[in-house]
Amino acid sequence: AKMAAAASDLLTGWCLFGLALLAILIFCWVYVRKYQSRRESEVISTITAIFALAVALITSALLPVDIFLVSYMKNPNGTFKVWADANVSRQIEDTVLYGYYTLYSIILFCVFLWIPFVYFYYEEKEEDDGNTCSQVKTALRYTLGFIMVCAVLLLIGAFVPLDIPNKKNSTEWEKVKLLFEEFGSSHGLTALSFSISSLTVIGMLAAITYTAYGMSALPLNLIKGTTSAAYERLENTEDIEEVEQHLLRIKSKCRDGRPLSSRDRRTLQQLEERLRTLRRRERHLESIEKSWWIKFCEAIRPLKIVWGVFFIIVALLFTVSLFLSNLDKALHSAGFGSGFIILGTNLTNPLNMLLPVLQRVFPLDYILITTIVMYFIFTSMAGIRNMGIWFFWIRLYKIRRGKTRPQALLFLCMILLLIVLHTSYMIYSLAPQYVMYGSQKYLVQVRCKVFLSDFVVVVVLCYSVLFPFNLDECIVTRTYLFLHKFWFFSAAYYFGNWAFIAVFLIGLIVSCCKGKKSVIEGEVDDDDSDMSDDELSVYYH
């Protein structure tokens, strides 16, 4: 009976997972096709981008599943469910653990082998349309460097010491040691964890760069909207007339056969390039004015404003929660040598207050956690789309509708894979106790105040600071154990959160000071070819 109940619940879960997987694949296909260049599209790069984006979204969805499973094994009165004995609980935990190992191994495969190989293969194909075998060999030679980096990380992870530095205040660490020992005794795979944690640090840097900016840029762009296509077209026509008049003045200097000076020739060349760009803008603006999609967007403008206000409120809520959580770690953790880990909560934040309230109505708390995860993913996409892909101060690629090169899509998917790895720690920072235990409760005996000799049984949340932590009664999520297996990575994440808050505030100020975006923002550049006009026309029609 126990196994039948568990099997029924697992079957329902797998059905829901299948539907979610189908929805993720459809979204990834639509998203990649939306931004993909029609002229430069390649089957292998398209499949790689869709697969990598799907892996990123599926991995991000594993966190709510992990929290749900540890919570589902216990009743609201703090007791374990009938079917959730020690063996079944262990099987469920191992299933989640294997899910993490599988997805993280796929991410390692994508980041260190598949995406670099496809990228270098396509780069080599652009430079030389010759022998396919030579292109594959060259791509493999460049990819070998990524494979060596992965091998080094795995070797370091296999032998890295996990001893926690001795501290005078070791109460918190004694509890954490028990968790790590339990985790290490059940398929810890330290090497994989170290490699993933290393990539998570890179993902942290990407989140600081793109997600923090996207959280401010996305809402404010929705609120401010874009300029009118008719107004832009009128301004563009005036610019064309001005450039044409300037060109006529320069050309009039050589009517009597005199050659132009080098300065005039340079100016003439610049003006001709400027005129070509303005005429491309004219064609794009004319196409947009006739587009039914733009007219539909104008009709739902009030709805965009509402969504923008909602998103900015959510972003401010996240920032305040992240600030209070980091402040709590700074004041009450064991410090840098412990990775700033705390098991209790001393300074509550809005999300930690909201989640216990939503737990009373199933499944509102899980909906909120899933929404938060998806919010981070979509704001990351918005940040990458607005900023483009940079290597320090060098801009490598732009992300544009219907005109994004295959290499840029591969870079975008790799960045999203890295950001997804860091998303779990961001959610933990926002609601640390909830990510550890979900909605679990347990029974504890307390002395009655009226009759001092009697004890009463009280149901308390697992992350309550009023009662001692009970490792036997509270099951910790696998996500938490992955996040804090190495204390030095936890310390890096802590400082990364402060940087994330700073970049968000700077991005918010910059976004507020900027005016409305052009209706064809980023769609027309000086380095575009005239053939690119056809791509955008196809997109809008």
UniProtKB/TrEMBL annotation:
Alphabetized Pfam families for the sequence: LMBR1
Keyword annotations: Cobalamin, Cobalt, Coiled coil, Lysosome, Membrane, Transmembrane, Transmembrane helix, Transport
Keyword field contains Transport: yes
Source organism superkingdom: Eukaryota
InterPro entries assigned: LMBD1_LysCbl_Transport, LMBR1-like_membr_prot
Subcellular location: Lysosome membrane
GO terms under cellular component: lysosomal membrane
GO MF annotations in UniProt: cobalamin binding
GO biological process: protein localization to lysosome
Membrane topology: Multi-pass membrane protein
Residue stretches in coiled coil: 261-288
Residues passing through the membrane, by range: 12-32, 44-65, 98-122, 142-162, 189-213, 305-324, 367-393, 408-430, 451-471, 491-510
Keyword Cell wall biogenesis/degradation among record annotations: no
UniProt similarity note: Belongs to the LIMR family. LMBRD1 subfamily.
Protein name: Lysosomal cobalamin transport escort protein LMBD1
Encoding gene (name): Lmbrd1
